[in-house]
Design brief:
Shape: elongated
Strand order of the largest sheet: 20-21-22-23-24-25-26
Helix content: 40-55%
Structural class: alpha+beta
Distance between the termini: 86 Å
Strand content: 5-15%
Length: 1464
């Protein structure tokens, strides 16, 4: 196909490439912790060296120490964030690290801190900030920080912080500076040569020559080195700023033009004068034209001369145009290098004869990288000994032949010698092969004519590249290889085109004054360039001028005088020989490095797992037979290659592909064919077939060819991944059902982002599920199905947690699990399938049950027995996950299968592997081994159990391996057998539920609840029984190993600096302590208490997390159940009492702890009481506060003007949220039933109103006229009971007329409990009314004396007890009755009358008229304190209320004041 793949580097392309390259660099750094630590130590040593300078004798200022400390703290916090997997912890550490690092990042780069340049500290901070932002998935900002690092401190950034990144991004732009440096250094060193006319000294200089330089020459070299480094730094900063502009450029919103690529220009001031010495042109560094011109450097084979002496030291010299100033040209040139091999400027190092053996070996190695070995003749083989004997005369006469010229290494050669094009031998020379063979033989036999060249000297052979001509046909263009060129042996500079490097054939002079070959400048302009290649000035004319006939005549005259040079430097259209190019263009030739995914070592091993050799070499590639075979096959392939690359007829191209593979397979030749077909132009032709053809056979054949080429040379893969459209084409073929495309995609090693963007999960599952087809006789490097498995594994296991979850659910929804399970029987791909299944069962519980019920474990056990550490690790993770089922009996069945399955003993294999496995895998192996052992012999100790426990304890105690501690704690949690969902155990939620805090448990189980019938309840009960038995056995084994050694290990983990480790160890320790009291004590409880009691109390006091406090309280509840534990807890009672009281409303077990502590004989309850007076609110405008009650963090008060107010008591001061005025007169009483769904209010306006209670307000829904003023009220949904100013009580069933239940006393207060009504009456009696029969009876009758003057003013019912209080009789103002038996269980011994009372979970509050509130301990009914209100004239206390948990107390006064107390 005639089309070429083009790649235009736009601003968004630069951004994408930068993001990919920098992202890969940061990802590698984040993965390699050792490298980060080494880098930190290296930077710290440099800081120490700076601080140790003589200028730092003075004391370092505190501010400077703070800056350095911030940097150190920020890096440490970042390391903690990298190592932790807890999301909240990671985010917190990242936020802290960002604050610390920003301090150094914003330093003034022109100043110093503690003697250290701020630029160094700032660059180091920017590097770590890029790591931080990468962890937050802010790739764009991470790139900006990397670029800022190079801007602030380019020197240390390229040598210390990110040298490999500098080489990838900036070094390709420094070719002109490197060339300048090489030229200048050679010019200086050449002054050492005694006589420059003696070219025997123009060799690569050895150490002795360099040591002989004069002082002024050494100073010039030092100045050159300094200027060279400054130039690199300045241009690095220049390009970093350009890339930063590109990153911030937005074409949609920005009005600025697209940032232009700068030009790296070498220093203009030379360090020496060339005029002082006459130096030949061939050692001068010529002007450079950027390869944006896109024209090949054409070479021609040098004919073998009869006089061997004249050809000594001949070499390939790059013809380079004048200069480069255009950034667009440079950009395009580097892009061209990824498209066509003919656009690459040949880079050759000097091929000189070294005097020492070491120099000679280095020369051989350097040249061998550029040499295609299968095209060397036997006489040129490095193994062929060279003749070293010659007469003195011949040695003298051939002195020039024995030396090679100084050659300049370009940037590409210095970066990677392997990127230069190979040089192959000619099959057609200017003289016949017979003559050549004869002369070659003569050279070998005759010592006089022997050149004594090293193998690298003999390597200087013509090279060519496959190019597309002006008419669309292919041509093979050679580049000149000249012999010992001198100024007289070269054409005049003005006769040579600066683009092609050849003598002008049709010169045209542009308006800028520069002259070019017409065809070359036409191609330059056809590529969209509108400037002169050399001057970079814009060209106004759209068409080219006429031929410069004056120059053409001069050239004609010169060529008549120099026919040989004219023939050598003329543009040859017809190929005289063919040489293949095995190297694809280097990634450094582009503006930015290749975007190909940088794979990890694990990925490379995975590729090697599948890849196998496709072609076996039958002969040595350096033998004559191999060369002849390659050349013969290439000659046969040429017509089909030309058709493939040039023809516009799709059918012809398809036929050519089929013929190419047929010839290739039948030839059975070596790597020469790979090198030939790996040419970018030919590869592009195959890619065109993939994008255009619809013939399935042709497509499969093309994929086979490309796969073989990629396996032979990774650079072919670089070529395919350099253009996104090529990958899109392969993904499209894959989606259309061509399964072989999966092979090609896999070999390209794409990144996760590339794969996920094409939604290939369904397609890959289809390939995996379908039966294998006949592959047209091809032996693929990797089976398409295996490639599909590997790709699916990369998609499912890659990305962040949400992406993994989404892709795993896609596999499940597409019914891919059965297909994956069927593929487990195949030997290849089991590891990938296991990894995919592991991700799926972690996401979905139903999937885990499906896999557990259908999977055959024998293939997995076989994989475990025969795999390496990585494979075994995956197998262990899968088996551990599989046995973590919600159904204990099912888990036991799987464990039994694992134990019995397989040829070898699984337990023995696990034991052996446990002893030699990596530390990170030991906890999982030990857990699985422990479960297997517990399944077979729960009460019998065995070597398996001993080794497993030792491994778990070792992992817990390894403080230097926090990841192992985390894994060990996680596996211990899983041993409890409590599982829910598909990701992790729900041990924490289960423990919280036991402690009375069931919100997390309910939230987790909300999606797990399923409807069950009667038949399933029996099965569920059986499962619960099996689960309890398993839990007890496991806890017993863990606790009793080595007399409770695990508790000592958990003690150390509880004080870890890692939040994740401390939290996990708290959960495990709580579970074990809780389980300790479910089986008989074996002396372990004392060990657990001594190790963990103080730690649990510390968590209870210091933790800010409610769930952690509840877990600690649950464990402490177990300790206080024993006398020794209770006594030890008593010492901490006062310090933890407030915490326990606050925790009581969330955790029911706290009540047991408080009760146990309060029952201690030496415990003084008064010491545990504390009260702080809060704000006082004035509501005198509403009159007296007649009634108050507290419900659901709301205080409701009623007032004498008929107002009802609702207050929010969540803060220190109550906040009024509603004021309702429905009653017309005073609201005397409020009542809320235990259901707390309604509010009832009674008023002097002879009505009872019913209110609904909402979160922010109350709303009146019913009004009942009872025709009498209501003094006291008690009501529920069925009945309302109220008292009036007369005797007895009224019962109103919400309809009709209230019924009067009369007795002789006035009713002061009412309380309802079920169908019984309790009335506090005058005469110090309590009447009990049965609402079913409307009959009354005396519940309690007071003393006989002074009857009528004593009254029960308040009744409260709570927890089956009736609290009655009123007038003082015999020093008692109230009693506590048990409702069931009417027995008195306590008395309120006080000498003052009680007007109002309130009861909560902890205390009884009794209020008198004079403003004193007495506080009674509810548990003992003993007075512990009193509260006295401030004096306010004749105001009296009219009502009190407290919240249920005893946090606050409220008192209402007759003057409208509301007083608040905090009881913490």
């Amino acid at each position: 196909m005639a089309g070429n793949h083009r790649f235009k580097m736009e601003a968004n392309d630069i951004v994408g490439s930068l993001t990919s390259i920098v992202g890969s660099f940061i990802q590698d750094r984040l993965i390699d912790k050792e490298q980060r630590l080494r880098h930190k130590e290296q930077c710290a040593e440099r800081l120490a060296a700076e601080n140790g300078s003589p200028h730092n004798d003075t004391e370092v200022r505190y501010s400077d120490q703070a800056v350095l400390a911030n940097l150190d703290w920020g890096i440490d916090a970042l390391e903690e964030a990298i190592s932790t997997s807890h999301v909240e912890t990671k985010m917190a550490r990242l936020d802290y690290a960002e604050k610390m690092l920003q301090v150094c990042a914003l330093l003034n780069s022109t100043q110093q801190t503690a003697g250290v340049p701020n630029s160094y500290l700032s660059a180091w901070a920017h590097l770590n900030l890029s790591y931080l932002l990468k962890l937050r998935n802010e790739s764009h900002n991470a790139v900006l920080h990397i670029l800022e690092m190079f801007i602030v401190e380019p020197f240390f950034s390229r040598i210390d912080f990110a040298p490999e990144l500098w080489k990838s991004i900036f070094l390709p732009h420094m070719s002109s500076i490197l060339g300048w440096y090489t030229e200048e250094r050679k010019s200086i060193v050449m002054d050492v040569i005694p006589d420059s006319s003696d070219l025997s000294f123009t060799v690569d200089f050895d150490e002795s020559l360099l040591l002989s330089v004069r002082p002024e020459q050494a100073e010039r070299i030092q100045q050159l080195e300094q200027l060279y480094g400054q130039s690199l730094d300045e241009n690095t900063r220049l390009y970093a700023k350009h890339y930063k502009e590109c990153m911030n450029y937005d074409a949609a919103t920005s009005r600025r033009v697209v940032p232009m690529l700068p030009i790296a220009e070498p220093p203009t001031t030379p360090l020496h004068d060339f005029s002082s010495r006459s130096i030949p042109d061939y050692v001068k560094f010529g002007p450079i034209l950027p390869k944006s011109a896109g024209f090949p450097i054409r070479t021609k084979a040098v004919s073998t001369s009869e006089n061997v002496e004249d050809s000594a030291g001949w070499d390939v010299v790059d013809e380079i145009p004048e200069e480069c100033e255009d950034s667009d040209g440079c950009m395009e040139a580097m892009e061209r290098s990824k498209e066509k091999d003919d656009d690459i400027v040949s880079v050759l190092s000097s091929r000189s004869i070294r005097s020492s053996k070491e120099v000679e070996r280095q020369s051989v190695r350097a040249t061998s990288r550029r040499q295609s070995p299968h095209n060397s003749s036997p006489t040129d083989s490095p193994t062929t000994p060279c003749s070293r004997t010659s007469s003195p005369k011949s040695a003298k006469s051939s002195g020039k032949m024995q030396t090679s010229m100084l050659r300049l290494l370009s940037t590409r050669a210095m970066d990677s010698v392997s990127n230069s094009l190979p040089i192959l031998c000619n099959d057609n020379s200017s003289i016949s092969s017979t003559e050549t063979d004869e002369e070659t033989t003569e050279q070998i036999k005759s010592p006089r004519k022997s050149t004594h060249h090293t193998p690298c000297e003999r390597q200087a052979l013509p090279k060519s590249s496959l190019n597309q001509g002006e008419d669309g046909s292919l041509s093979y263009m050679s580049s000149p290889t000249s012999e010992m060129l001198t100024p007289k042996s070269r054409p005049p500079k003005d006769f040579v085109c600066p683009i092609t490097g050849q003598i002008f054939n049709d010169p045209v002079t542009l308006e800028t004054g520069q002259t070019y070959e017409r065809r070359a400048i036409q191609e330059w302009m056809s590529r969209g360039n509108t400037t002169c290649p050399i001057t970079r000035q814009p060209l106004s004319a759209a068409s080219l001028p006429k031929t410069n006939y004056v120059l053409k005549r001069l050239i004609t005259s010169w060529t008549d005088q120099h026919p040989e040079l004219a023939q050598e430097f003329s543009c040859i259209e017809t190929p005289r020989s063919y040489t293949s190019c095995s190297d694809v263009p280097s990634s450094q030739a582009s503006t930015l490095p290749s975007q190909r995914n940088i794979t990890s070592e694990a990925d490379r091993r995975k590729t090697q797992r599948f890849t196998r050799a496709a072609v076996a070499l039958s002969t040595s590639p350096t033998s004559v037979i191999s060369q002849t075979s390659n050349e013969a096959v290439i000659n046969v392939l040429k017509p089909y290659i030309l058709c493939l690359c040039n023809s516009e007829d799709l059918q012809e191209c398809e036929a050519a592909v089929l013929e190419i593979v047929k010839i290739w397979l039948e030839s059975n030749v070596g790597s020469g064919i790979h090198s030939y077909l790996s040419s970018p132009t030919i590869v592009n032709g195959f890619l065109e077939i993939l994008s255009a053809s619809r013939n399935k056979e042709v497509l499969k054949t093309t994929i086979y060819i490309l796969s073989q080429l990629i396996c032979a040379d990774d650079r072919v893969g670089d070529l395919l991944t350099s253009i996104d459209s090529d990958f899109y084409c392969l993904a499209d073929l894959l989606r259309k059902g061509l399964s072989e495309a999966a092979l090609l995609v896999y070999l390209l090693r794409p990144s996760f982002s590339q794969l996920s963007s094409h939604n290939l999960v369904t397609t890959l599952l289809h390939i995996i599920s379908k039966k294998s087809e006949d592959q047209i006789g091809f032996q693929y490097a990797v089976a398409p199905k295996d490639a599909a498995m590997a790709l699916l594994e990369q998609i499912v296991a890659g990305g962040d947690e949400s992406e993994r979850s989404h892709n795993a659910m896609t596999v499940i929804k597409e019914n891919g699990i059965p297909a994956l399970l069927n593929c487990l029987n195949q030997a290849d791909g089991r590891e990938s399938i296991l990894s995919i299944l592991l991700c799926c069962i972690r996401i979905d519980t139903a999937c885990k049950r499906t896999v557990a019920s259908k999977i055959e474990l024998s293939p997995i056990l076989e994989l475990f027995h025969g795999g390496n550490d990585s494979v075994r690790g995956i197998c262990i993770e899968f088996l551990c996950e599989l046995v973590q089922m919600g159904r204990r009996t099912f888990s036991n069945q799987i464990l039994q299968i694992i134990k019995d399955e397989g040829t070898f003993s699984t337990m023995h294999t696990l034991l052996v592997y446990l002893q030699m496995s990596p530390m990170v895998q030991k906890p999982a192996i030990a857990t699985l081994l422990l479960q297997l052992d517990l399944l077979t012999a729960p009460r019998k100790m065995s070597i398996y159990r001993e080794e497993a426990m030792e491994a778990l304890l070792e992992a817990l105690q390894r403080k230097d391996f926090p990841s192992s501690q985390v894994m060990a704690l996680g596996t211990l949690s899983s041993l409890s057998g409590h599982f829910a969902g598909s990701k992790k155990t729900y041990m924490e939620c289960w423990l919280l539920k036991i402690a009375g805090f069931d919100q997390p448990y309910n939230a987790m189980m909300r999606g797990e609840e399923t409807k069950t019938n009667e038949a399933e309840y029996a099965e569920i009960r059986e499962e619960e029984k099996a689960s309890r038995n398993w839990e007890k056995r496991m806890a017993f084994v863990l606790s009793n190993h080595e007399k409770g050694l695990i508790f000592k290990a958990l003690e150390e983990c509880l004080v870890s600096n890692s939040i994740e480790i401390a939290k996990s160890s708290l959960i495990v320790a709580t579970w074990l302590v809780y389980m300790l009291y479910s089986f008989p004590d074996c002396g372990i409880r004392d060990v657990a208490r001594k190790s963990l009691l103080e730690k649990f109390i510390s968590v209870l006091q210091s933790s800010k997390n409610l769930e952690e406090k509840i877990l600690a309280a649950l464990a402490l509840r177990g300790f206080v159940s024993e006398t020794r534990g209770l006594n030890e807890m008593g010492a901490y009672a006062k310090s933890i009492w407030k915490t326990l009281r606050r925790l009581k409303k969330s955790c029911t077990v706290v009540h047991d702890i408080m009760k146990a502590l309060m029952n201690l004989p030496y415990m003084d309850a008064a010491e545990l009481w504390s009260c702080v007076e809060g704000p006082e609110l004035d509501m005198s405008m509403n009159g007296e506060i007649l009634s108050m009650l507290h419900i659901r963090n709301r205080l409701i008060s009623s007032h004498s003007d008929g107002t009802i107010k609702v207050w929010d008591t969540g803060k220190r001061a109550p906040r009024l949220i509603q004021e309702a005025r429905e009653h017309t007169k005073a609201v005397t009483c409020l009542y809320v039933p235990p259901s707390c769904d309604k509010l009832y209010s009674g008023s002097l306006d002879k009505t009872i109103r019913v209110w609904t209670i909402r979160q922010e307000e109350i709303h009146c829904i019913q009004v009942h006229d009872v025709r009498e003023a209501v003094v006291a009220l008690a009501a529920n949904a069925s009945v309302a009971c109220f008292s009036t100013q007369g005797n007895g009580v009224k019962v109103y069933n919400w309809s009709g007329v209230p019924k009067n239940i009369s007795f002789s006393n006035k009713v002061k207060c009412l309380r309802l409990e079920g169908d019984k009504l309790y009335c506090g009456c005058s005469g110090y009696s309590i009447q009990e009314v049965d609402l079913n029969t409307y009959s009354s009876s005396a519940f309690y009758s007071g003393a006989k004396k002074l009857l009528g003057k004593q009254t029960i003013h308040s009744l409260q019912i709570q927890d089956g007890l009736l609290y009655a209080s009123g007038s003082t009789v015999d020093g008692v103002a109230g009693k506590v009755f048990k409702l069931s038996s009417k027995a008195v269980v306590g008395s309120l011994a006080t000498g003052v009358d009680v007007q109002h009372s309130s009861v909560n979970n902890d205390y009884i509050f009794t209020a008198t008229k004079c403003g004193i509130i007495e506080v009674w301990l509810k548990e003992r009914v003993t007075k512990i304190a009193y509260i006295k209100m401030g004096s306010a004239g004749h105001a009296r206390m009219t009502s009190i209320a407290s919240d249920a948990h005893g946090q606050k107390l409220f008192a209402g006064m007759s003057d409208g004041r509301l007083q608040v107390w905090s009881l913490d």
